[in-house]
UniProtKB/TrEMBL annotation:
SUPFAM superfamilies associated with the record: FAD/NAD(P)-binding domain
Family to which the UniProt record says this protein belongs: Belongs to the FAD-binding monooxygenase family.
GO molecular function, one term: NADP binding
Alphabetic keyword roster: FAD, Flavoprotein, Oxidoreductase
Protein name: Uncharacterized protein
Annotated source species: Ceriporiopsis subvermispora (strain B) (White-rot fungus)
The keyword Oxidoreductase belongs to this UniProt entry's keyword annotation: yes
Amino acid sequence: MIFFCMQDGVRWPSYNFPNTPDSIALDAYLRHKSKFLEAAINRLAEQAVFNHPHGDCLYMASEKTAPGSRIAIIGAGVGGVTFAIGLQKRLGFHDFTIFEQGTDVGGTWRDNTYPGCCSDVPTHWYSLSSEPNPYWSRTHVPQSEIQAYWQSLARKYGLYTRTSFRTCVSSAAWDDERSVWVIELEDLQTGARRTEEAEILVSAVGLLGEPRYPTKLEGRDRFKGELLHSARWNHGIDLRDKRVAVIGNGCSGVQLVPEIVKESGVSVVNFCRTPSWLIHTPRGEFKEWHKWIFAHIPMAMRAYRAWIMLQHEMMWPLFSSGQSKNRAKVEETIKGFIRSVAPESYHDQLMPNYPLACKRLVVDTGYLAALHRPNLDLNWDGIAEITEDGIRTQKGENITFDIIIFSTGYVADTYPVPVRGKNGRTIQQYFDSQGGPTAYRSVGIPGFPNFYMLGGPNSNTSIGSVIFFEECQAEYILQLCAPVLSRSVRSFTITQSACDAYNADIQARISRAVYPQCNSWYRAAEGTGKNFSIFPGPLTRFWWIMRSPIWDDYEVQGAEKWKPRSKLARVVKCVGLGVALACTALVWLNPTQGGRIWST
């Protein structure tokens, strides 16, 4: 364990070497296979990590005039829980508060409870590398099991007592003179308002929060039947013997439709605008002996996780615009799968006319087979408006419905909290000035000291685990928090030039991929503007970028005697990483054939 000296002389733990949140789990491998090597590396790195001539306080602490923890976290979803765990495990730090509007942790997995809701990413990869679970029931588990996982982590790390539930962050503003965030809060139960302060503000509001309704579709307020969004499912609704419209055929719509058509007497029309690339992935239950192996055989579960990640990483070349021939072969394979399962009458309508992976890939969970049911129809005519008793199509047909369900995604290109930086500008105003959400390495925004984002701009993936991204971000942010918490630095602010250079590279890489070749929610301006969502590269590249800060990219306040990691520490880390990679390759990356993502 590496330590650094705090103001009060207490030796607080910093990052275990090597610092790897990824599924390859090099840190775990070193601990298990080569404790001697790890100890030797740590002894060298300990001398180089924080090159302070003194262990005492290098500046006066921030002056807080209101109550509050040193770190405030907005949101108790996946990102907020991940970061809070990291604070405790990596830094041994507990003086933080999570502010959550809902009544429980879990975020999108708390809110999305529609029938059929499940992970479309293999579950062993859709979980924290630091908190593996050998007892997952299936390769792709339902929402309830994922939510239970995050609840169990919150209980394990005492997050329920550190979270202020039913609390809305009304606004936050940086006080540059005192180097604190002034946070205005509202109790959603009583309406009471209060002010708290924090030295560091971490945003974990995520991308999948506010349900999105088509902005140009009129008449929602006129409909006299039941109207709801899949992201806010009404469990009191009775679908039996009802005429139901489902608008949308993306990930949630494809999961929802096969389940609701099973209701007695229900008749469903799925309104579709653009066909999705519907892929088949092997799915099934884990048997008890699988779980026993994961729980008791050293490294078995991590090796399985690494195998899953490797399969997905090998797909990245298909996302490059220069791989049109190889992508065309895969596209034909997927189209063959669609033809083999769907009714022949829908074949032409179900074939995408845009490149594979330009939009989010959609995993078929029984949707194509459900199209054979007599109580399910697809409608591709387009919707002109919602009427009092149903939907009028763009061809002029009036169709009567009892219930209309929107499965149209989320508002992803805005920031929901009015957070103001040191120049008085809000995050949303900064996003607008950049043509859409923009950040440095997805976590930092110029003009916003000690403010960091989890699930920020360009930290999403077309296929893969977003949990991986959030772990990488959390580890990166922790490295920026450590000097502030040790009172060696007052604040870090990313420079505009560094942010501009990083995003110029991101957008250049996106322009060479398939993403500009279609409209999607990945892009601002109703799907036609800048791609603010996708990271243009394999996940291992994101991990590499996020492994440690480039300190020269930051404006540092209150750090007259502070020095970042020395060159020796970086050399030691690179040498150790190379050794660990070589060891890992010998164990895991053998030449045997893995499974296939797509099969027919």
